[in-house]
Amino acid sequence: KQEVTQIPAALSVPEGENLVLNCSFTDSAIYNLQWFRQDPGKGLTSLLLIQSSQREQTSGRLNASLDKSSGRSTLYIAASQPGDSATYLCAVWNYGGSQGNLIFGKGTKLSVKP
Amino acid sequence: DGGITQSPKYLFRKEGQNVTLSCEQNLNHDAMYWYRQDPGQGLRLIYYSQIVNDFQKGDIAEGYSVSREKKESFPLTVTSAQKNPTAFYLCASSIVAGSDNEQFFGPGTRLTVL
Q1: Gap between the Cα atoms of A48 and A53, Å rounded
Q2: pLDDT digits over A28-62, tens only?
Q3: Residue B110 contacts A where some CB pair is shorter than 8 Å
Q4: B71: phi > 0 → left, psi -120 to 50 → alpha, else beta; which?
Q5: What does the alpha-carbon distance between residue B80 and residue B90 come to, in Å, rounded to a whole number?
Q6: How many angstroms separate the CA atoms of A85 and A104, rounded?
Q7: CB neighbour class for B5 (10 Å; exposed up to 12, middle 13-18, buried from 19)
Q8: Which of A30, A31, B11, B62 makes the best surface tag, with the fewest CB within 10 Å?
Q9: CB A75 within 8 A of CB A82
Q10: Pairwise CB contact (< 8 Å): A44 & B102
């Protein structure tokens, strides 16, 4: 059974720092991996989707990498800003899973201090 | 303005009552999903629908029911059989069901059982 783990559960950094959020998964047979952002009491906003054949995706100050063989993905945020404060979730889609089933981690709560 | 809407934002229910959560999308997406989020937990799939008049159980379907009579709408009913219904409910959609397709989320409904 696929399990997705995000470490750390919470992270606090000063504004301007570059930071890395980690996501690991136990079964490397995935179709893709998706990173989301969730603000308190809100829905999820999709940040990046990495297909299993890709190594990384970039959007603005965000860069996500994927290493299927080691079961890891990282989300790199450059020059962090207070507006980046949110919970970041990663999710994977397995081979053999149902057509609906993204498997989510519990998230990393990021706080960027001005 | 394209997107996914959920209503109401907050919902209070007495024990023993059924309640229905609304989810509407104008993205012309075939697939729609319902997830449940509990504090400190990852999202868990309740039901999903690949096309009108079709839906499938997810990991935690017991105590819930859905319908998909229109492409735009995928209401979720939380029945009295659901033992612990207090949670944050998120609706999502994708162009079609399946692993290559990015899921987009609504703003969520917070259900509290009194």
Answers
A1: 14
A2: 888 889 999 999 989 999 999 998 899 999 999 99
A3: yes
A4: alpha
A5: 19
A6: 20
A7: middle
A8: B62
A9: no
A10: no
